[in-house]
Design brief:
6-stranded antiparallel beta sheet; Phosphatase 2c, domain 1
Length: about 300
């Protein structure tokens, strides 16, 4: 197999920026250490196979990871997770994308858990992972933890595609507390799933059909814990993708910058090539608010 082109950061524990584009997509990766922490434990990655056949079969990979464990352990966990994800996904046998993503996240979990078991320096380390494969006109997502994926679409607004694996998010979904109460909850950072903290990991898998004009955001909770959905949506609507990314970081810094902040933005600038849906992921429908409003008025 030819080695895919991989761009990864941060490499110095501080800040990172990277831009990329092809005929269909634009991408901008941006990570900031924030105002309160000395070290950036977030990681982000982009991977594009140079081989056309491999690219047509496996697609492009974008991911964010938010490490935990203190000292250098969190940084190491997030980096190891994403590097293992790329290596396993592109190096494994051909199979449906959701199955390949599940296998890759399980391998990342195994490596982090085993490393923490034998090396006291990394004891208890783990990481969130939100990773996306774009293959034709489908985006496939694997999710563990409370990093997030959003999609902004004209006439549909912004929609959170992933579901947080956190105690507070589970209470919101159960109706125990409101979303407003969750935003200011003292336990909002307590996650219920992470890669590497247990011998086995359970990941969510999603699939969403993409179209020209869509803007996709993968981000660590350093962004979404401090910045409202309204401000995120407004930033995603900025025409220039790099300006959009920098606006998101600025909003998080204005909100206090108490955590590392990482954003991976992808914009669909032309009609993507059609591809068949691959089984194994929960299909997410992006609702058109204009259509729903017309239906509501009709039945009213």
């Amino acid at each position: 197999m030819l080695t895919p082109r991989t761009e990864y950061g941060p490499v110095n524990g501080l800040n990172y920026a990277f831009a990329w584009e092809n005929d269909t997509l634009e991408a901008y990766l941006l990570s900031d250490v924030g105002k309160k922490r000395r070290n950036n434990e977030d990681s982000c990655i982009f991977c594009a196979p140079a081989n056309e056949a491999l690219a047509a079969e496996r697609g492009l990979l974008f991911a964010v990871a938010d490490g935990m464990g203190g000292a250098s352990a969190g940084e190491y966990a997030s980096r190891l997770a994403l590097c293992t994800l790329v290596e396993t996904y592109y190096g494994g046998a051909a199979k449906p994308v959701p199955s390949a993503l599940r296998e890759a996240i399980e391998k990342a979990n195994e490596r982090i858990f085993d490393e923490a078991e034998v090396n006291p320096v990394y004891s208890g380390m783990g990481t969130t992972v939100s990773a996306m494969i774009i293959l034709g006109d489908w985006a496939y997502v694997v999710q563990v933890g409370d990093s997030r994926m959003y999609l902004l679409r004209e006439r549909a607004g912004m929609q959170q595609i992933t579901r947080d694996h956190s105690l507070v998010a589970e209470q919101v979904r159960s109706g125990i507390i409101s979303e407003e109460e969750a935003r200011n909850h003292s336990l909002k950072n307590l996650i219920t799933r992470a890669v590497g903290i247990k011998e086995n990991v359970k990941a969510d898998l999603f699939a969403v059909k993409i179209k020209r004009g869509d803007t996709i955001l993968l981000c660590s909770d350093g962004l979404c814990n401090g910045v409202s959905d309204g401000h995120i949506a407004k930033a995603l609507a900025i025409d220039e993708l790099s300006a959009s990314a920098h606006q998101l970081i600025e909003e998080a810094l204005i909100a206090g910058g108490t955590d590392n902040i990482t954003t991976v933005l992808v914009r669909v600038v032309e009609i993507p090539p059609k591809s068949e849906y691959q089984e194994g992921a929960e299909e997410i429908t992006v609702a058109n608010r204009g259509f729903l409003s017309r239906v509501f008025r009709l039945f009213s």
